[in-house]
């Protein structure tokens, strides 16, 4: 399966990229960086650091939009640290950043590859994807599916009481993506807050005894400090790798085909994913909204894959 990962690394983005690179079922056509957890310069740098950690300096990494469509950029250094990848000590990347803009790469790739063969995997704010769809509407029917991490319904918000970070940062972009008519799978907080890195799961990463295993353990150690204090749970949610988990093993996940719309007008609930879970409107379904996952199954798959790197 051919995919493009659009990302704002972010420790959990990094783990998702590693999981994809470790999986023979997946052909990663490129990584597109977007501003989100930290500014674009750092996310484009971090994406390359992660490729080099995986021994894949051949992956094409593109920088995209450096700010949301209409809003001032909100970042999350309070979760991910100043660099976005705080925790492990990782060298600066030596592989090049591609010259082309991420949006041009997205459009050109979707026009070049046979229709219905490329899946987009956004792990950050949806700015790059929305700009590509707005600039080149002909790509929408060519996208096999968009599988994204973002939003929340029962678990509500992690950046405001009602909004999840990725959707909150660029709600107008999310609105464009959710209305694009492209098959959509959404991994919201309702799913990712069940993918908790407990001490035992983190020990399993470290026990791989490889640089990748050790680095992933150090990354999750870092952002755990924030999440444990905030949620008081058994471990930090490992959000973004659930996207790759769903691609590889959808049977580990449960959700519903429902209508999801994005709140863009209210300051109070900006970026809320208004999910018609109970089917109380006649608005047509536009997304498979995942509400639950088999956490043990997901973590054994993830750990087994990381062990291949
Ligand atoms: C999302 O926000 C980011 O901080 C994480 O990388 C993840 O994509 C979770 O709300
Ligand atoms: Ca992310």
Automatic annotation (TrEMBL):
Keyword Kinase carried by entry: no
GO cellular-component term (any): cytosol
Pfam families, per the entry: IU_nuc_hydro
GO biological process: purine nucleoside catabolic process
InterPro entries linked to this entry: I/U_nuclsd_hydro_CS, Inosine/uridine_hydrolase_dom, IUNH, Ribo_hydro-like
Source taxon at top rank: Bacteria
Record flagged with keyword Lyase: no
Domain Inosine/uridine-preferring nucleoside hydrolase: 3-299
Sample GO molecular function, one term: purine nucleosidase activity
Keywords from the named record: Glycosidase, Hydrolase
Protein name: Nucleoside hydrolase
Organism this protein belongs to: Palleronia sediminis
């Amino acid at each position: 399966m051919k995919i493009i990962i659009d990302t704002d690394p972010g420790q959990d983005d990094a783990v998702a990229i590693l999981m994809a690179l470790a999986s023979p079922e997946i052909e990663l056509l490129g990584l597109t960086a977007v501003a989100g957890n930290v500014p674009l310069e750092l996310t484009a740098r971090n994406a390359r650091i992660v490729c080099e950690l995986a021994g894949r300096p051949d992956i094409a990494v593109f920088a995209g939009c450096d700010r949301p469509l209409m809003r001032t950029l909100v970042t999350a250094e309070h979760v991910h640290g100043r660099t976005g990848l705080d925790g492990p000590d990782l060298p600066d990347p030596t592989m090049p950043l591609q010259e082309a803009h991420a949006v041009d790469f997205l459009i050109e790739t979707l026009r070049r590859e046979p229709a219905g063969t490329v899946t987009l995997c956004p792990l950050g704010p949806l700015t790059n994807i929305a700009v590509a769809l707005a600039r080149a509407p002909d790509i929408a029917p060519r996208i096999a599916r968009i599988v994204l991490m973002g939003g929340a319904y029962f678990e509500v918000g992690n950046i405001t009481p009602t909004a999840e970070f990725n959707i909150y940062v660029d709600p107008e972009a999310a609105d464009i993506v959710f209305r694009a008519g492209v098959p959509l799978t959404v991994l919201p907080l309702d799913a990712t807050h069940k993918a908790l890195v407990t001490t035992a799961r983190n020990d399993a990463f470290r026990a791989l005894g490889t640089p990748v295993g050790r680095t992933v353990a150090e990354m999750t150690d870092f952002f755990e400090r924030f999440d444990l204090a905030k949620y008081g749970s058994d471990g930090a949610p490992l959000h973004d790798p659930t996207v790759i988990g769903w691609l590889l093993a959808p049977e580990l996940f449960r959700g519903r085909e429902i209508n999801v719309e994005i709140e863009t007008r209210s300051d109070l609930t900006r970026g809320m994913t208004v999910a018609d879970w109970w089917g109380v409107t006649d608005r047509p379904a536009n997304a498979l909204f995942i509400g639950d996952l088999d956490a043990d199954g997901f973590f054994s798959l993830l750990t087994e894959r990381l062990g291949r790197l």
